[in-house]
Automatic annotation (TrEMBL):
Name of protein: IGSF1 protein
Keyword rRNA processing applies: no
GO biological process: one example: cell surface receptor signaling pathway
Pfam family, one: ig
InterPro entries documented for this protein: Ig-like_dom, Ig-like_dom_sf, Ig-like_fold, Ig-like_Receptors_ImmuneReg, Ig_sub, Immunoglobulin_dom
Gene that this polypeptide is encoded by: Igsf1
The Ig-like domain, residue ranges: 3-86
Keywords attached to this entry: Disulfide bond, Glycoprotein, Immunoglobulin domain, Repeat, Signal
Species, as recorded: Chionis minor (Black-faced sheathbill)
SMART domains recorded: IG (SM00409)
Length: 184
């Protein structure tokens, strides 16, 4: 039952070259401070603002690509470590996909929900993101939907998707507009 710390990216997804993102460290902890690491090297000490600390990346370059994590410290003692968040910076070459949800934005608890990410490209695959989560959902090929069965309150949140091709070079799209799922 000690302190825990989590890390996530806002908005989630691969960052466009020259774009921006925010790395959020969310901590169930008391006083102390949060240190952001990149590829195992200390980057910044962040002040906790309530239960979270944020670090912004703007005008992103390839140098911002890396494995980020947050440590919660009291003095010099590490009390908690987050999972690792992979940040990737790429040029975007594909059109922006469109995310839709069936049967709709608001559903009753226990209902089944289908997310569909649509892009105008014959061979693109897509990733579905939920803001606040480190990992994306399983990879979707162009013809696939992602289904959530028996949704509950914990499935609520801000979803988006991003697509890529896997030919000789990975080519990425921008991240879709977000969709908020509400579970009643």
């Amino acid at each position: 039952g000690g302190p825990t710390i989590s890390i996530f990216q806002k908005p989630p997804g691969v960052i466009q070259l020259g774009g921006s993102t925010t790395i959020c460290c969310s901590c169930q902890c008391d006083n102390g401070h949060v240190v952001l690491y990149k590829n195992g090297h200390q980057l910044h000490t962040l002040e906790l603002n309530g239960s979270s600390a944020e670090f912004s990346i703007s005008n992103a370059t390839q140098q911002d690509t890396g494995a980020y994590s947050c440590h919660y410290l009291d003095g010099d003692t590490v009390l908690a470590r987050s999972d690792t968040l992979e940040i990737l910076v790429q040029e975007f070459h594909l059109p922006e996909p469109v995310l839709s949800v069936l049967p709709g934005h608001e559903v009753a608890a226990g209902a089944d929900v289908v997310f569909r990410c649509t892009i105008v490209h014959p061979k693109a695959g897509c990733l579905l993101y939920l803001e606040g989560q480190v990992k994306s959902f399983p990879f979707l090929s162009k013809e696939q939907d992602y289904s959530l069965f028996h949704v509950r309150k914990g499935d609520e949140g801000r979803y988006s998707c991003q697509c890529f091709t896997r030919d000789a070079l990975f080519k990425w799209s921008a991240v879709s507009k977000t969709l908020d799922l509400v579970v009643r």
